[in-house]
Amino acid sequence: MAEPTIADFEEAARLYFSQLASEMDRPRGFSDDPDRLDRDIAYSLHLNEERTIELAEQLQRNQFDGQVLQHAIKMAALIGLKFEHLTVSQQTQLQRLAVRTDIAESELFAHQITSPLDPFEPGDPLFHTQLTQEPRGTWPSPPELRQGRTIKSAADEYVARKRAKKITENQIAELERVFGWLQEEAGQDALLGGVSKDMLRRFRDDLARRNVGLRGRRVPFRHGLAERPEDYIKFQTAIRYWNAVQRLFAWSFSEGLIDADPAAGIIMDPPKSVVVQSPNSFTTDELQRLLKTPLFSGFKSAKRVTEPGAWTLRDGHWWYLLLAMHSGARGGELCQLYPSDFVFDHPVPHWKFRLEGPSNEQTKTLKNPASVRDVPIHPRLLELGLREFVQDRAKRFPKDRLLREFRLGTAGRKSAGASRFWTDYLKKFGLHSAGRSQHVWRHTVTDCLRANGVTDEDSGAFLGHSSGTQTAKYGKAQPLERKLQTVMKLEYGFNVIDALGGTYAKSRHG
Q: Rounded CA gap, 416 and 40, in Å?
């Protein structure tokens, strides 16, 4: 085809969004257990919201993860292009559109879970021609009616519809609070059709400046804004407030109450004051306590791993933690491993993090180019039976992922199942704190290596960190022999093999 234009790329984004939407109509892998269903749904929505925040941050930084790259490659293919043949500028354009597509997909996912009977309209105007309802016959709303609705009347009707759908009273109260602030800023009798994008941008920015110390107190909106960034509400809270505003206007547009959606496409960027709270690394004492819990010392049954018992099977749950403890790999990286990613008959036994699956097609996602790497296998993992476990999985489940016990999540969260399991497990034994489900292992491994004299350069090569330096872009990856020197520094201050009940024995460990 001729030199592609931005219009071609936008058409690819719309086509791809239609594909994603049709795939989303398929049944989801929620639990059949009624007691867990609500928790599964709530957790999926939480992961979905986190992914939306991540995507907004990527758009701001103009730096994109593996999930976005894969979507951009597929979008290019839809219009007969190969992504790798595009210029750097064109690749960036396509990846920015892929982010917008992912955000629209996240909106659709949340909509189908929370408001499946309501009409859906993406917040991004790029996709407004997608998934819209057919015209409503011969009942067009008169212009004077459309322009005559006030913010208050539209908000009241929107909240009433949400209440009829049995959302919680806390959610209702939050909607009423946010819409009340909007009315304060615009004026009690302000018309819905008179709200401009500039007005909403200012309101969005002020939402992020809400004073966390005034939470729960009824004060005028202007009086509730903080001057110091350290007093701002959490970004996750601010974006939830802003999403409520966007959904109000998207619904108003879909209902014909306004001729255009002024909130569409306005993204809330994280303020500079946002600081990601890193989880505390496991201490030596905590690691020893963890390895004495039932999963590692003996559990009741395959479905009762938190209860003490005689089972000592070293299954996917068991090996997830051992692999994380000896690699610091991200949860999504571990959950996408296949038996074929492991190379045992090599001078340096190792496993590979790649975008390609067993069929040699790009079916995986990784965070950044540095995440594509080889990781030496610590000798103690071989003593604990890693080779036997991988070979057994390859024989019994030849087409399945290695750690098949954990389901893959949606919206780029490949580690959703593992995150859920380890959050619950660590809470059960008093070892959980903020962020301590999976990412804690990256911090624990990093701190262990640093304490044992490993340089940040060697740690970064081992962990798959992107250094961001120009020098790092040249030359080959670190050789396995050097990485092996790094992995051998993973000593935690106690005998790990003894703590786990000894070396592998088929009769005891499966």
A: 10
